[in-house]
Amino acid sequence: MGKNVEIEHFCIIGKPERGKKPGDSDTVIGDDSIIRSFTTIYARTKIGKRLQTGHGVLIRENNIIGNNVSIGTNSALEYGNTIGNNTRIHTGCFLENVKLGNNVFIGPNVVFTDDPHPPCPQYKECGQLVIVEDDAKIGANSTILPSVKIGKNALIAAGSVVTKDVKPNAVVIGSAAKEVKKINELKCFKGFFKRPYEWER
Question: Which of 11, 86, 105, 151 could form a disulfide with 137 if both were Cys (CB 3.0 to 4.6 A apart)?
Fold first, then answer.
C-alpha cells in the first residue's frame, strides 16, 4: 500500500483469486489513491498512483492500472486488463482482456465483449484482446466486440457497436459503426473552440 491511500468502509482489498489462499499473491496500490466504499480489489493486481474508484467497483486479478486513473461507480474490470495513465472509465462499464492506452476516455455503460461465440468454454485461449490506443474516446452505451483495435485519437459515437478496427483520428457511428469523418473535421457547435479537442494541443 502506498502513502496517503484512503480506503472507505466496506471494501475488500487483496481478495484471493479462485484456488489461491490469502497472501499467495500481491496486491499493489500506489500513493494518494482513493478507494470508495463497496469496492473489491483482487490479489495479483498492480495499481499506480492516484487511482480513484467510484462506489461498488470490481477489479479482478491480473489487472495492471497506470497512474491518475478514474474508474466509475459499479464498473467491473474483469481478468486481464491493462489500463494506461490518465485514463477515465465512467460508471457501469465492463472490461475483460482489454488494453487501454494513455489519456483514453470511456463513457458510461460501455461494454467490451470478450467471447466471439458465447458461451465458449475456451474463450480465454482465443486471444481476443481489444486494443484502444492513446487519446481515443468511446461514447456512452457503446459495445466493442473482441479483437478490435481502436486507433489513436479516434472517436466512437455514443451507442455504437464496433465490429472491426477503427483507424486513427476516425469518427465512427452506428451499428455496426462506420467511419463518417475525421477528428479534425468536427465542429464546436457552440463556438467555444474552432473544433473539439483543440484544447488537447
Answer: 105
Half-sphere exposure of 110 (CA within 13 A, CB side): 28
Ramachandran assignment for 147, one of left (phi > 0), alpha (psi -120 to 50 degrees), beta (any other): left
Give per-residue pLDDT as tens, 21-69.
888 899 999 999 999 999 999 999 999 999 999 999 999 999 999 999 9
- C-alpha 121/C-alpha 98 separation (Å) is 19
The residues carrying an active-site annotation are 117
What single string gives the DSSP state of each residue in 100-116?
E-TT-EE-TT-EE---S
- The predicted model scores a pTM of 0.90
CATH code given to domain 6-200: 2.160.10.10
Determine the residue type at 36: R
Radius of gyration (Cα) for the chain, nearest Å?
17
- Cis peptide bond prior to 157, omega within 30° of 0: no
* Distance of alpha carbon 99 from alpha carbon 137, whole angstroms: 14
